[in-house]
Write a structure and sequence with these properties.
By secondary structure, this protein is an all-alpha fold. It is 65% helix and 2% strand. It has one domain (9-311): Ferritin (Up-down Bundle). The protein has helices at residues 5-18, 31-50, 52-56, 65-90, 96-104, 122-139, 148-176, 180-199, 211-216, 224-242, 267-274, 281-294, 296-312, and strands at residues 252-254, 259-261. The chain has a two-stranded antiparallel ribbon with strand order 1-2. The structure holds fe (ii) ion (2 copies). Residues 78, 132, 135, 161, 164 line the site of one fe (ii) ion. This is Ring-1,2-phenylacetyl-CoA epoxidase subunit PaaA.
Length: 313
């Protein structure tokens, strides 16, 4: 590439974004955009993979064959989401082994929500309803992300996430029709997961350093606070239909804003978990590291086989 060609390429990139068209792997793109996309996609991929652990915890103890089959399918979907996303990151020149290394050495993040424990089977339902529900709010707009491979991966992921949300809600509905003890179990799980779910949308807009640039590049379509509000407004009638109380005394409809007001979020708790001090941070990473090490022989065998095939050719 010559020095004089660069401004033209940059204009072409900006023009593509302006016209709401997709940036594809063959296109020239600014280094900042590449880095931002790799960071966002890697963090998303890691979240899918680490997110298998809290619910995977309940597969062997699911209360019926039907619940076990549903949960297995759901956790397996999350593995698939991780794989589509690592592949999307590879189209930007990222190396999958390097991304995994960064995850298990703590240099890249995953969603903090997965650092909370799953104490009862009701947690499986609440994760589906609230955590996958929040993920859908975040991810539906990403189907229009400016980076083509990411946007296309998100379309498929969102379809599967809506199954996750519904299986969770249906599980909770069933438990709410059950015994007093089951209803108490659901309420307890809602109490523990509500606030962490609101934190999933990230820090308030005023403290979100990457938002402005990501909005300009159309890799992000709405701010953290907009999406959080949308999620709250969506969840209130669902909680009512379910018969549970959301643990926020300040939660109420604001006629003027046409939105629900809600109480302050404990951002100190969020920051502590980001720093690695959540209840399960160490356990999640240790488990992922062990799975990676246990799989070393598979990678070695695959590489040896590929080398042999190449030798024959
Ligand atoms: Fe997922
Ligand atoms: Fe999911």
């Amino acid at each position: 590439m010559t020095a004089t060609a660069e401004p033209d390429l940059e204009r072409l990139f900006e023009h593509t974004i302006e016209r709401d068209q997709r940036i594809e792997p063959r296109d020239w793109l600014p280094e900042g955009y590449r880095k931002t996309m790799i960071r966002q996609i890697a963090q998303h991929a890691h979240s899918e993979i680490i997110g298998m652990q809290p619910e995977g915890n309940w597969i062997t103890r699911a209360p019926s064959l039907r619940r076990k089959a549903i949960l297995l399918a759901k956790v397996q979907d999350e593995a698939g989401h991780g794989l589509y996303l690592y592949s999307a990151a590879e189209t930007l020149g990222a190396d999958r082994a390097d991304l995994t290394e960064k995850l298990i050495s703590g240099r890249q993040k995953y969603s903090s929500i997965f650092n909370y424990p799953t104490l009862t089977f009701a947690d499986v339902g609440v994760i589906g309803w609230l955590v996958d529900g929040a993920a859908i709010c975040n991810q539906v707009p990403l189907c229009r992300s400016s980076y083509g491979p990411y946007a296309r991966a998100m379309i498929r992921i969102c379809k599967e996430e809506s199954f996750h949300q519904r299986q969770g809600y249906e599980l909770l509905m069933t438990m709410m029709r059950g015994t007093e003890a089951q209803r108490a179990m659901v309420q307890d799980a809602v109490n523990r997961w509500w606030w962490p779910s609101l934190m999933m949308f990230g820090p308030p807009d005023a403290e979100s350093p990457n938002t402005a640039q990501s909005m300009a590049w159309k890799v992000k379509r709405h701010t953290n606070d907009e999406l959080r509000q949308r999620f709250v407004d969506m969840s209130v009638p669902q909680a009512k239909a379910l018969g549970v109380t959301l643990p926020d005394p300040e939660l109420k409809w604001n006629e003027e804003r046409q939105h629900h007001n809600f109480g302050p979020i404990d951002w100190d708790e969020f920051k502590q978990i980001l720093k690695g001090n959540g209840p399960c941070n160490a356990q999640r990473i240790a488990h992922r590291r062990k799975a990676h090490e246990d799989g070393a022989w598979v990678r070695e065998a695959a590489a040896a086989y590929a080398a042999k095939q190449e030798g024959r050719a």
